[in-house]
Amino acid sequence: QVQFVESGGGDVQPGGSLRLSCLASTSIFSGFAMGWYRQAPGKQRELVATITQHDNTNYVDNVKGRFTVSRDNAKKSVYLQMNSLKPEDTGVYYCNVDLERHVPFPWGQGTQVTVSS
């Protein structure tokens, strides 16, 4: 069983940046493709970005060129660098395995990102 703890969220103005971190409870996470997901108010959780075990990345169209996902297996961590933030990026951000490839582990508490002026 793997548990995830997300951090790094906060309140930011449009155009600002945040770096989210996800710490896994065990190093076996290095064997999984990972994903960042977000849930906007009143909406379902959606995929934002994925990174494979070999550092291949994919992004949904509305974050391409603004967000960068990375991982550090030695630190049991996955990161999401978010630049040029927009109000529509507001939501709770979660990490978990890539749901297209793996059965998810329990979801963590997520970290709140609020983009407003």
Pick out its properties.
4-stranded antiparallel beta sheet; mainly beta; 10 strands; 0% helix; 117 residues; 6-stranded mixed beta sheet; single chain
Please describe what this structure looks like.
- The chain has 117 residues and is mainly beta.
- It is 0% helix and 45% strand.
- A six-stranded mixed sheet has the order 2-10-9-4-5-6, with no helix packed on it. Strands 1-3-8-7 form a four-stranded antiparallel sheet, with no helix packed on it.
- The N and C termini lie far apart (40 Å).
Topology:
Elements lengths: L3 E4 L2 E3 L5 E7 L9 E6 L6 E6 L5 E3 L7 E6 L4 E6 L8 E7 L13 E5 L2
Parallel strand pairs: 2-10
Antiparallel strand pairs: 1-3, 3-8, 4-5, 4-9, 5-6, 7-8, 9-10
Brief sketch in words of this structure:
By secondary structure, this protein is mostly beta strands. It contains no helices and ten strands.
Whole-Å distance between the termini? 40 Å
Briefly note the structural class of the backbone. Answer: mainly beta
**Poorly predicted spans:** none
**H/E element sequence:** EEEEEEEEEE
